[in-house]
Write a structure and sequence with these properties.
Helix content is 12%, strand content 31%. By secondary structure, the chain is mainly beta. The protein has one domain (5-96): Ubiquitin-like (UB roll), CATH 3.10.20.30. β1 and β2 form a beta hairpin. The termini are far apart. The mean pLDDT is 91. The structure holds FE2/S2 (inorganic) cluster (FES).
Length: 101
């Protein structure tokens, strides 16, 4: 399968970045200078939660303690366990800042 570019809109910072389809969302954001809270990067701590407002991700395995079923129903995802599958709109709990590189 050929990876297609996808757009991720961070709605509460009005920032739009281009990532590759099938990239891990957290890795994609960090590599493009988005400040994002995280810790374990393995689906265990829950530090990388954000709201998926629109679009599709594929969730990789994560521990039950990191994200509850209720949170999943509300559209909360773990950025470190989410493969980008389409254009996305996300909402960060802390508005993203960018490294002015
Ligand atoms: S960084 Fe720990 S669950 Fe994502």
């Amino acid at each position: 399968m050929i990876a297609m570019p996808c757009t991720v809109l961070i709605e509460n910072s009005n920032r739009r970045i281009t990532v590759e389809q099938n990239e891990i969302l957290l890795t994609a954001l960090l590599s493009r200078g988005v400040r994002f809270a995280y810790s374990c990067q393995s689906g265990n701590c829950g530090a990388c939660k954000c709201q998926l407002v629109a679009g599709q991700v594929e969730a990789l395995p994560f521990s039950d303690g990191a994200l509850s079923p209720v949170e999943r129903e509300r559209g909360i995802i773990l950025a470190c366990r989410s493969l980008v599958r389409s254009d996305l709109t996300i909402h960060l709990s802390t508005p993203a800042e960018t490294d002015a590189a």
